[in-house]
Amino acid sequence: SQEASATQTVRCILEAAPTESLLNWQDYEGRTPLHFAVADGNEAVVKLLTSYKGCNVTAYDNLFRTPLHW
């Protein structure tokens, strides 16, 4: 499935470079990987990202929305 594929891809990336800067990287609108996973409704990726200690679950995007707003 697409969700399983996305989860495996994220897992591979994080295993190769499990850094806070990668976990909390922000795009030009300030969105983090967690913002995207939540907005996409991908619960498996959300669980994977938040299982890492450095994942910032309260990161704001440029419109002052956290992943919880999605």
TrEMBL record:
Q: Which gene encodes it?
A: INVS
Instruction: Tell me which species this is from.
Output: Nothobranchius kadleci (African annual killifish)
Q: Which PANTHER family match?
A: ANKYRIN REPEAT AND PROTEIN KINASE DOMAIN-CONTAINING PROTEIN, INVERSIN-A
- Keyword Repeat listed? The answer is yes
Q: Which UniProt keywords apply?
A: ANK repeat, Repeat
At the top level of its lineage, which domain of life is listed? Answer: Eukaryota
Q: Which SUPFAM superfamilies match?
A: Ankyrin repeat (SSF48403)
> One Pfam match, by short name?
Ank_2
Can you say what this protein is called?
Answer: Inversin
Q: Which Gene3D superfamilies match?
A: Ankyrin repeat-containing domain
Start-end of each ANK repeat? 29-49
Q: Enumerate the InterPro entries for this protein.
A: Ankyrin_rpt (IPR002110), Ankyrin_rpt-contain_sf (IPR036770)
| UniProt entry tagged with the keyword Repeat | yes
